[in-house]
C-alpha cells in the first residue's frame, strides 16, 4: 500500500484576513484589483472580494415558493447574472490601513494586568510602519 502525502495547499488553515478587510488581488484575472472582503471561507482557504473574479451565471425563469398577496406564485426572472466567485486566500494581500500599502500580516501580543488578559492582534510587517491593523 502506498502512502500519499497530503498537499498543504488543500488543507484548511487559519486565514490572516477577515471579512471587511481591504485587500489587493496579486494574481489571476483580477490582478491589481482593490476591494473589500465580503465573505471569508476558512475551511476552503478562500475569500470573496467585492468586484473581483466576476463570473456569469445563466438561470431560467422559475416560480418562487412563497405566494404573493393575490395567492399566486410569483416568477423570479432568469437571465445572465454576474456575481463574485471565491478566490484562494493566497491570491490576495491585505492593505494596511495606516500606510495604505499591501502588506504581509504579523502578530503581536498585548499584555494586561488581569489573569488571562494576553491578547493577540495583527500588525503590519513593513519595517517603517509596524502599526496594529485591528
Secondary structure layout plus pairing:
Layout lengths: L21 E4 L8 E8 L4 E4 L4 E6 L2 E6 L5 E4 L2 E6 L2 E2 L3 E4 L6 E2 L1 E6 L8 E6 L10
Note down, in words, how this protein is organized.
The chain is mainly β and 134 residues long. The protein has two domains: 11-63 and 76-95, SH3 type barrels, CATH 2.30.30; 97-134, no CATH class. Helix content is 0%, strand content 43%. It contains no helices and twelve strands. Strands 8-3-2-1-9-10 form a six-stranded antiparallel beta sheet, with no helix packed on it. A hairpin with an 8-residue loop joins β11 (105-110) and β12. The protein is elongated, with a radius of gyration of 21 Å. The N and C termini lie far apart (48 Å). The mean pLDDT is 88.
Low-confidence stretches: none
Please tally the β strands and state the result. Answer: 12
Largest sheet: 6 strands, antiparallel
Specify the CATH class of the largest domain: Mainly Beta
Please compute the radius of gyration using only Cα atoms.
Answer: 21 Å
CATH topology of the largest domain: SH3 type barrels
Keywords:
SH3 type barrels; 2 domains; 6-stranded antiparallel sheet; two-stranded antiparallel sheet; elongated
Can I get a quick summary?
The chain is mainly beta and 134 residues long. It contains no helices and twelve strands.
